[in-house]
Write a structure and sequence with these properties.
Blueprint: H1 2-8, H2 24-34, H3 38-47, H4 52-62, E1 71-75, E2 78-82, H5 87-99, E3 104-106, E4 111-112, H6 113-119, H7 129-147, H8 151-157, H9 164-174
Helix pairs in contact: 3-7, 4-9, 7-8
């Protein structure tokens, strides 16, 4: 915990992170939703030398329901979640969006098409939770390498959104 705190303090701004602020019921809900993917979170965080709670917080903000089939189309700075009920439907949806050159996000870490193109990965592969988390961790690691282990690096995971680090800060408080 202290390591995350010291890594995320920047610009003389000390933020106190504690799990005591979230209720026990909130912490249990987070734990229950993320439980099937904990091994993937641990593996991806370890591979990219990240704290697993930080990666967990990013997934919580990007995809609160821990839905590996989550798809969101981006238009004019807003995300429009797509309703999919099965893996096959998710495959059809991301394939159609990819062919149309739409700007969209996929999976637990909501990996964006910019990164799909950069890494030359088809969005269908990102429907796999562990694959998605590995790419999310890689994107976060690259941002940290570019900006330092600070809130700016966290913000850049999501593009340029000054409110994003505060959402991550709140999610860190809620994770046991």
């Amino acid at each position: 915990m202290n390591r995350i705190l010291s890594m995320l303090c920047c610009c003389g701004c000390l933020l106190v992170l504690t799990t005591g602020w979230a209720s026990a019921a909130d912490r249990k809900a987070v734990r229950d939703q993320s439980k099937p993917y904990q091994a993937c979170v641990q593996g991806a965080a370890s591979a990219y030398h990240l704290h697993p709670r930080l990666l967990h917080a990013i997934v919580r903000v990007e995809n609160g329901a821990w839905n590996p089939l989550a798809i969101s189309i981006n238009r004019r700075g807003r995300g429009y979640p797509q309703s999919v009920r099965s893996y096959d439907q998710a495959v059809q949806t991301v394939t159609a969006l990819w062919k149309k050159n739409e700007n969209f996000d996929v999976g637990l870490g909501q990996v964006n098409t910019i990164n799909m193109e950069r890494f030359k990965i088809h969005p269908v592969y990102l429907l796999d939770p562990c694959t998605n988390l590995r790419y999310a961790a890689r994107i976060l690691r690259e941002s940290i390498d570019r900006h330092g282990y600070n809130w700016k690096a966290i913000e850049r995971y999501n593009g340029v959104n000054p409110q994003y680090p505060w959402k991550i800060h709140q999610a860190l408080k809620e994770i046991p």
